[in-house]
Design goal:
alpha+beta; Aminopeptidase; 2 domains; 7-stranded mixed beta sheet; 12 helices; about 25% strand
Length: about 375
């Protein structure tokens, strides 16, 4: 590879060097920070790959390795990577191709692992990305429901963004502003309040989630100053009625986790509109070009979908998860995970179907 100007590195040197690399790219994100991966499953085995062209860093990836003890076989997992869109440069598809090839050679051929990638990419009408993954020996994992979200274009003025809101959304926002609700930003000491709010929301809505406020609290401690999460809370008089955590890394801000208390739904039902709008404006002020509302599922969570779609953004579908494997034991582990994923998805769909049937029966 070095004969044509390209070279690879697998050693970072220090956390600061990794964050310096992330600063070079528009598609940098929280999930590719060392802080996030340190507090996630597989944290004991982190691995990196840096692709350079003529000594210029053009793509990076941080992976978690799930290894079978003593065998050094298992799975290399890349979440929201690789990172390859350099700031102030046109998208170079050759860089993506080169990086996928390097990942395949390093983790599948050399280390004999299964390589699983959840890329930070959205589907295109011309299927450009899909063809690149396929050409580099990856195949799409079976997924019943592809992940979707809504993106808000922050390149528009705040006035235009507000005008584009659905009428009911604007009304709720104005109502919150008239009620003199207090928004508190960057409240690292507010994690405890947010944990209480989120715990109540999970209990009330009876849904399962792997995301916890405490996890984000630990992540935030290890993030550098310019990557800190925004812990935003909303108060009505002396009561915290709603909260939201957001991140703004690269060119996209993301609403991560939040909710409204039962009391807040009664006294300040518009508070979460106020929070989401302020988080969106915060991401815009930090220089982000897009604001990701944090995922949607019209079938399993129609209420949240209705709320988020009211901001009149663009509905986007993630590219899907890709995998590559070649050697025995690692491939068996991958097949087991795929089977488990398929069963879990079927169970979730069945539960959602039953809830929808009950709702229709109870509806007048």
């Amino acid at each position: 590879m070095e004969s044509d100007g390209y070279s690879l590195e697998t050693e970072v040197g220090s956390e600061q060097i990794w964050y310096n690399y992330l600063e070079l790219f528009d598609d940098s994100n929280l999930y590719q920070t060392q802080a996030y991966n340190k507090h996630s499953k597989g944290a004991k085995h982190l691995s990196h790959l840096i692709l350079k062209k003529n000594d210029k860093v053009i793509a990076i990836a941080q992976l978690r390795l799930f290894l079978i003890p003593f065998l050094k076989r298992g799975i290399a997992y890349l979440l929201r990577g690789p990172v390859w869109k350099r700031k102030d440069e046109d998208e170079c598809l050759e860089t993506l191709e080169r990086m996928l090839s390097a990942l395949y050679n390093e983790f599948v051929i050399k280390r004999k692992l299964v390589l699983l990638i959840e890329p930070n990419l959205f589907e295109k009408k011309d299927h450009t990305y899909e063809s690149i993954f396929t050409h580099q020996n990856f195949w799409l994992k079976k997924q019943i429901n592809r992940r979707k979200t809504i993106l808000i274009d922050l390149k528009k003025s705040s006035e235009d963004l507000r005008k584009s809101l659905r009428r009911s959304w604007r009304q709720n926002l104005r109502k919150a502003e008239r009620n003199d609700l207090i928004i508190e930003n960057n409240g690292e000491n507010k994690f405890s309040y947010l944990e209480e709010i989120h715990t109540e929301v999970v209990r009330r809505k009876k849904f399962k989630t792997d995301l916890t406020v405490n996890q984000f609290k630990n992540i935030n401690k290890d993030l550098p100053a310019n990557y800190k999460l925004n812990v935003m809370t909303c108060k009505n008089n002396d009561d915290y009625v709603s909260g939201l955590i957001g991140t703004a890394i690269g060119d996209t801000g993301i609403a991560l986790i939040g909710g409204t208390t039962s009391k807040g739904l009664k006294t300040s039902p518009s508070s979460y509109y106020y929070l989401m709008w302020n988080m969106c404006q915060w991401a815009k002020k930090t220089g982000c070009k897009w604001f990701d509302l944090g995922g949607i599922n019209p079938e399993t969570n129609p209420g949240v979908y209705q709320f988020k779609s009211g901001m009149r953004g663009t509905e986007m579908t993630y590219l899907g998860d890709y995998q590559a494997c070649k050697y025995g034991i690692s491939c068996i582990a991958c097949k087991f995970l795929n089977f488990k994923l398929l069963i879990d998805n079927k169970q979730r769909l069945e539960i959602c179907h039953q809830k929808e049937q009950r709702r229709r029966v109870l509806s007048p």
